[in-house]
Amino acid sequence: MDLVPALKEPLQQPLTSVLGPATAKVMAEHLGLHTVGDLLHHYPRRYEERGQLTHLADLPMDEHVTVVAQVADARLHSFASAKAPRGKGQRLEVTITDGSGRLQLVFFGSGVHKPHKDLLPGTRAMFSGKVSVFNRRLQLAHPAYELLRADTDESVETWAGALIPLYPATAKLESWKIGKAIQTVLPSAQEVLDPLPDSLRDGRGLVSLPEALLKIHRPHTKADIADARARLKWDEAFVLQVALARRRHADAQLPAVPRMPAADGLLTSFDARLPFTLTEGQQKVSKEIFDDLATDHPMHRLLQGEVGSGKTLVALRAMLAVVDAGGQAAMLAPTEVLAQQHHRSVVEMMGELAEGGMLGGSERATKVVVLTGSMGTAARRQALLDLVTGEAGIVIGTHALIEDKVRFHDLGLVVVDEQHRFGVEQRDALRGKGKQPPHLLVMTATPIPRTVAMTVFGDLETSVLDQLPAGRSPIASHVVPAADKPHFLARAWERVREEVGNGHQAYVVCPRIGDDVDEPGNPKKAGAKKKSPEDEAEKRPPLAVLDIAGQLARGPLHGLGVEVLHGRMPPDDKDAVMRRFAAGDTDVLVATTVIEVGVNVPNATAMVIMDADRFGVSQLHQLRGRVGRGAAPGLCLLVSEMPEASAARQRLNAVAATLDGFELSRIDLEQRREGDVLGQAQSGARSSLRVLAVIEDEEVIAEAREEAARLVAADPELETLPGLRTALDALLDEEREQYLDKG
Fold this sequence. Notes:
Structural class: alpha/beta
Oligomer: single chain
């Protein structure tokens, strides 16, 4: 984005020229701050009131803290040591208090002189250091400190009521040093260009950007902080939504071939074959997709749906519509197991309609091919030939689809399954194989709260499937506390035997393979000292597929057909295991999360997840969705050794309590840093969200999206808003612009 040259932003000035090279270097290396703007947008984490002392009783161990407290006493001791053998070593012990607790500070050697002079009883100061324990007492060793003196022109009342900003800091740079640097650059805030249009700001009663920056860094009252945060949240939401709206606008200008299903073609024949009627949700979402496919610019749609809501069927109908219209459709799956599974279920659903060019195939049929990295040379050559000639209307594959050798006759639709498993480049490479940009349908079974979808997938229109098809059975979920109640675990294996006795099958899921290759979660240190039960449960290596399978086959599941499945098995072996399980030849499949998505065995009714606390909320919900896919009810047992009061157990209780994936995704988001959830879309220190919270600020994000769409429709190049163009430039470095470009 080219800026108007005359408008050189004061916020783009490098910190080296303002603060000096040493401080600027620390800020760049440890906090990712490079310009005056970066520093002004490094907001306080919280505020201390001088009249209120910090609760010293609540200090966290081993963390770098900043506290405001008063010196109770200070004593200088002499001692003998290797460096000072004649008893000339000096140690200053200072006790500080806040009325609720006391904390000891220690200074040694030549470092005692200044604090001995400064830290007299009754002195108030800010102290910063790492909390440690010595002689069973909390202490800060050699803390940095800043005395708090009432300025001569301030009354005691004003001084006591003032708010002290505490900044996210590092051991190399204390909060007050950051504060002083900000005070140095704060005058620049007066010249900053405001990214928000006047009409938007006035209509919502928001303060100007210079005023917001002043109030967040130098507030007089709590109302100042509230005004500043309300305004800065709008900046973050609006600038991001404008970037996404410009993407959508640019995409709408791209040409695409409209793809409309033939009146009496493949799709009609397929629908006539279905042994059930589509749910209302599937019909509604299919209509949204078909409307998009009929336009002359590329569809960019996110299809998110509950586990088992029938997304694959909706995607298949879209692919058939494109084949009907003379194009080809490609589905990109994250694993070979899933690609093979999708291929099998698509061929099964289509029957003779998937046998194009074969004896017994319908005259309207097409060919459905699979393409994975481990295929034999002859099969691979045939698949590539079928794609380039147009013989194959549908291809389902892994990353192998992206390779240069793969050529299409006329690629009209790309379906990406489980979006979060793919890098941007991979998705873009597949889209680049069309003569014109193909339509794009992204599917995810991980429910995403509406505002996260608007923030992360803001360049995609969203369709939601939240209805389960008729005939899907409820899944009962229970936590099995293996350490507290071992007999519960014994009962879990009895339940598995009962399910198998009734003609059904079961999964047992473990976090680790156990083939001695380095895996996450392996213990790093042997012989560590005794830990609490919670530490013990966390520190031992996660349970492994290969160990558990053997124990079960010899013990509680003796006599049943037990097989293993994991990601490091040869592809043909994986496929053979899956086929046997799908055919009902195996009773119990002990697997890693390789079965997490897409695996569809309606006869599997029970799942036991070992070390369930090692999995995330969304992942547990995904795994659980593999059972209860037929007429019989599903059972999911979450086995954990974590103590009842632990956060991990509360998380498992939440999963057991609801089958609503959207509710669970909210819980998941509240428990994790938002940056993790927003992933690449919010990567980088400069571009991460600072005051905007995607769950709490749903209203702001939704309104910002509407305002952004309106503004971009009227002025796509933002010619009338130089301040907004500058803000976009600061938010979107080239890499991030690319990320948003590709969704």
